[in-house]
Amino acid sequence: MPDATAGFAEQALDVRRPSAILPLEARNLVFEAGGRRLIDGIDLRLDAGCRTVVMGPNGAGKSLLLRLLHGLIEPSAGSVLWQGKPADRTVRRRQAMVFQRPVLLRRSVSANMHHALRANGFSRQEARDRARDWLAYAGLSGFADQPARVLSGGEQQRLAVARALSLGPEVLFLDEPTASLDPASTLGIEEIIQKAAASGTKIVLITHDIGQARRIADEVVFLYRGRVEAFDQALCFFDAPGSAKARAFIEGRIVL
Ligand SMILES: Nc1ncnc2c1ncn2[C@@H]1O[C@H](COP(=O)(O)OP(=O)(O)OP(=O)(O)O)[C@@H](O)[C@H]1O
Ligand SMILES: [Mg+2]
After folding, report:
1. Which of 27, 39, 154, 204 is the residue whose CA sits 20 to 30 A from 175?
2. pLDDT of 3 over the 50 cut
3. Residues within 6 Å of ligand 1 by CB
4. What's the pLDDT score for residue 1?
């Protein structure tokens, strides 16, 4: 849980300026593998200033969509455009991603922070300062010199989120960041995400946790079999879903 002085995150993030990279658009996005069309012609426009939650049954294509948007994998057809253009170096630097299972180096907690910051162009001194401040913010200062892999799952995930935010991204993609965490750790991560959003970071989050989706979402993308089945304002999605599949999903009935 954050243990640094109030307001640190807001100051450190400092992205409350007109976005240099948004909106983000998927245009007729297709991804095929193993003879299957896993992402099946997605059109989507994500704007600055709102928190987007991606939901849908297992295997719907949520993780693939995030990987495509983030540029980790190439589409089979269609395009991902940032302010109408393909991702360039600036775009790549201004977005970060947190995975369900944190991807950490076999090094110390602070080395994990430092390495990411240096790789993203921060000077040695800046990397040291940011690593220290963000570890404090994430309540991880006491672990700085320990191997990252000995942290608990919840601590590793806090480290992954702190590492991503320390880069000052304008867009933060999160793929089920709290899937294996206890309620307190989940709320701790949510608090960090909400502060980042309040500071102007665009949040694009996958979750199966409907309570979490209600707490975080301004808008919901509901995926079903590689397609956008519904894309609505959160209130509308949860209280009066236009899609029968979305309604079945929210009510915990299996969507076939
Ligand atoms: N590289 C790949 N090659 C072949 N199939 C793949 C590949 N990556 C994903 N898939 C398949 O694509 C489908 C969508 O996968 P994806 O991981 O995006 O689902 P998801 O919506 O994130 O599901 P979950 O809620 O279980 O995380 C799945 O059926 C998966 O097995
Ligand atoms: Mg997934």
Report:
1. 27
2. no
3. 33-34, 38, 56, 58-64
4. 47
